[in-house]
Each structure stands twice: as C-alpha cells, then as structure tokens.
Records
---
Amino acid sequence: MGKKKKTPPDIHWLYEASVQNVDTDLDFGKRVYTKHWKRKPLTVREDFCGTAKLAARWAQRSKLHEAWGIDFHQPTLDWGVKYNVSELTDKQKKRLHLICGDVLEAKTPKVDLAFALNFSFCVFKQRDVLRRYFQRMKESLKDEGLFVMDIYGGTESVTAKSDDVREIPGFTTPEGMKIPDFEYVWEQAAYNPINHDTTCHIHFKVPGFGKIEKAFTYEWRLWTLAELQEILLEAGFSKAEVYLHDFDDEGESDEIFRLRKTYENVQGWVAYVVGIK
C-alpha cells in the first residue's frame, strides 16, 4: 500500500502568512491620516475583509479603536471569527463588527479610515461600477476621512508568467500543526491588453505536503494608477495620492512608501492609492 497522503494545511493560514502584513497596512494608513488631519484615526472599515485580520488587529491595538469588516463569503468570515477574533478580549470583540454582505450595499457608521486591500476591488471591471464603489466608500467616511487601497503593476504585470516564487517562514497553527518553510507561487495565467482582464492563481509548495494547486484564483481587471486617481476624483474625493516604495540591495521592496509624482517603470511594484475625502 502507498503512503497515506498527509492532510495539507488550511490555505487560509498559508495565505495570511504569505500575503498579509496588517500591521504595515495599519501603520501606513495611520501615518497618512495623521499627516492630513493632524489627529489619530479611531475607527476603521475593512472592505473585502476575508478573515478580518486587519479589522481584528485594529480593535486589538487600543481601547479607543473600533472596526467594521465586510465580506460576502460567510465561511471565510467564520474562519476569521474562529482564529483571528478568538484572540481578542471580550471588550475588544465588542469593538469589532463583521458584516456578511456586498460592499456596494452594506452600511456601516461613518469611519475615519477605510481599506480595500490585496487588490480586491479589481473584481469591479467596469469603470461605472468602480466609481459607484468609490462613491459608496466616500459616503462611509467621516468628513475627515481617508480611503486606502493597494494595486500592483510594472512591466511584468502585463505578461503571463508563473515564476514569481517567494520563500515563506514556517509557523505552528493553534491546533499544533507544524508548517515548515514553504513556497508561495504567484501565477499570472492570462492577460488581455485590450481590456486589462487578467487571471491569476496562487499556488503553495509545502514540504511534506506537496503542491497545493490554485489555492486561490482571481479574475480581475488590472487598473492603472492614473485610472484609479481619476475615478477617485470623479467619485467626489478631494484628492488622490500614490505612495510607492524603493528597493533594497537585493531588489526587494524596502517597505517604505513615499508620496510620488514620478516613478521608474520597473518590472514590478506595489503601490498604495489614497483617496482623501
């Protein structure tokens, strides 16, 4: 008899370890918010929140913080409640509100700072729909409000490729499963230059567990920085800013995002785009 195949790790753990750095996102949002409004933000909204890691972390950071998270996929929210929300104290949990719903329809109290991260808004492929989403986002902000999203680009973002591999440090899950250092593989399976439609997959290679093919698949429109700024202004934001990183000696992002007007057209970059209400 062949060896029994080990049950692979939950893909949500692998995703959070590979893709998300919620403290970096929150620190960035707080820094830019304070620059514009000369005070610290207290309330946060996380759209397309998935496992609600960012919203939960915000509630955890201060007894003055309150957060809302919106996602249309209840099983993913349930996973976030089981793991990310369970780490909070009872008081922190009361300051975290999760909504299963459509970000184009769901309503929350007005917040200081809102996020749509991990390129999630790229599911909106029509300009009119994206503008409507930005208008909804503007309505959800207080008068002194800020909206932060991220987007990727560069010369290699508009080609089909599957060689973007990163080594991710291992960790142990709350259930005690030891996950060794593993590989995160980003595949751009297709790109249409006429309408910027792109199909991307995330694969994982975990030693002892094998390859998890197409753990996540995305059907997006890859919006440009110019388009996002224009549509934010069309939606009524007073200003739209772009923040981009430099590179370290090994060609990796230095993770320091600065306000930019010009930028070299390198192979790949990730930017924060900020709408100021």
---
Amino acid sequence: MTKTDLLKKLAAQLTDALPSHLSTFKKDFEKNCQRILSRTFTKFDLVTREEFDTQTKVLLRSRKKLEELETHIKQLETLLKNKRHK
C-alpha cells in the first residue's frame, strides 16, 4: 500500500466515523483530513512497508557480499603470509 493510499483510507475511516446527518460536512472534512495527514506524515519522513522491505533485502545482500569479501581477504592474507615464510 502506498503512502497516498494509506492516507486516503485513513481519511475515509475518520470521515465514516462522523454521524451520517453531517453528509455535507463529510466531503470537506475528508479532503482537509487527507491534506493534514499527508503534511503531517511527510514531516515524520515515514516509509512504506514495501520500501522498508526493499531496503532490508538490499542490506542483507550487501551484508552477505561484505562477508564474502572478508573471507576472501582472509584467504589472500593467509596465502601471502605462507609465501613469505617459504
């Protein structure tokens, strides 16, 4: 779910919580609510779950590559050390 979809859904839920006899007020409230929520959430600098999951995968791949490189460096250092002792 994108940030925009989340905010629209949240604004709609807040609007639905209003009494039904305020129908003319509801549309303005929903529009204003969505605008206020959007501005507030932007200040929080939040990310969507999809963005978070994507970055988690990138981090895991980077961590794996780093571990592989560290292992390779250790192997090369061992080889170099063994050659010096011969």
---
Amino acid sequence: MSIRIWHQSFTVLSDLGAYDEALRAHFRRVARPDTEIHMHGMRPGTYRNHYPGDDIKYSALQYLHGLQFMAAGINAQHQGFDAYAISTLPEPALKETRSLLDIPVVGYGESAMLTACMLGRTFGVLVFIDELAEQVTENAARHGLAGRLTEVRHVGFRFADVLAGFTDPAELIERFRSAARGLIASGAEVIIPGEAPLNVLLATHGINEVDGVPVLDSLGAWVKQAESMVDLRRANGTRTCNRGYFSAQPEPERVREIFDFYGLGSFIQAGDQA
C-alpha cells in the first residue's frame, strides 16, 4: 500500500531551481518505490528575497512563519496524506502542529538526532546560519538529547555558497570536511549536516563519512521515519498522544475560527479538517 508524505520546506521552492531539482532526485533515491513525497514550500512572497535565513535567524519572525507550518499540516491531513514532514532544521511549530493533527508529524532535526543516537554515542551539527546554533542546542534539549550533543558550530560557508555548490561542489566539500574534523576533535561520533540544502548537496555527491565518522543523510532519516510511523499506525494503530497541555487536540472548528480571527483563514482549506 502506497504512502503519501507532505513535505514542508522553509524555502519558497520555486525560487531555488537547482536545490529543488536536487531535492526531488534525492527523494527518489531514498524513498520506497511506493512512497509519494509531495513537495511544498512557503507561500511566494513570504521573504524579501530567495533567502529565508534573514528571517529564520530571528526567534520572533520564525515564530510567525510557523503559522504556515501549522496551516500546511492541517491541509495535509484534510487532503488525506499519511504523514506530514517538516523539512527544516529549526522545526518551527513542531510540537504545536503535532497537537493539531491525527496523522504522524515528523521533524527533520528530531529525526536526524534520534538516528544519530543509533550510529554513535555523540553527535555534532554543522550549520550555515550562525544564529541557528542556539536554537538547535535548545531543540536537542527539548528532544531529551542534550547529553548526546557535543556542539553546534558554523560550517564555514553560507547559503549562497551551497546553491553555487550544486554546480561545482569540490571546494565546498573540502571545506565541509575541514569543519567536520573540528567536530570530531570535540568528541562527535556522528556528523549531522544541519540545513537541508547542505544535506542534499553532500548526499548527492556521496559524502557519508569523514575519517571513519558517519555523515548522516538527515533527509533520508526523515523520510524513513515518516514511512515507519505510517507503517506502525497501519500495523497496530499506533498514534500520537492526545492528552495534556502539549498534546491534546483542540476542536478543528475552533482552530479555524482563530485562524480567521487573525486574518489567516485563507491559509487553511475549506471543509472538514479531520
């Protein structure tokens, strides 16, 4: 039986041709033949330019953009998707979105960290947005994995370099290896390439280890976790918690009323959300 996964990026995918195509190709490689990954990005015009990092590095702006992630999750469930997968390291509104949906909700960073814990005792993360280091460190603690994280550090290049690297990757890969060796020296036994574009670039060119230390395909882990959560649900009915402040699901009608009140009703499709 096929699986339909709603992929939600923090980028406006139509603005990023090279990354968009590489992402589609990577999904074809790592997903099962009967898994359909439907790619979605932020609404056109969300950012001032094609680079979301100018907003992502601010907590308040990322919080506001998280409303798109919640709305997209509601739409995914309404359209009959089997899982909703947040495909960005910061994982905006992850716990909030889980509390709104009945289908599995998978986070990119969480999946990577959990998988890393099965590959080594410790892991480190490389990012190209400096300010994300604080958030990723906090996310690791929220996921209960602070003791397994050695360090989050800047990789030594930025988003524009990664986009250019899809055409000529050699120099960027060497710079990544140099940064990874710094994490290894600090005790990391698994390297997580932070943001999804960096992950896709490395995976596309077969970079899966540095000096015997695994370089995790975070997107591959994310896909496989989404598939597994759907399999578990179909096999024995396993579902997310629906109790307590962080997990109890509010009435869908009230969710729509609140989106409407704040002028965001157009972000959610009409009709029953269940």
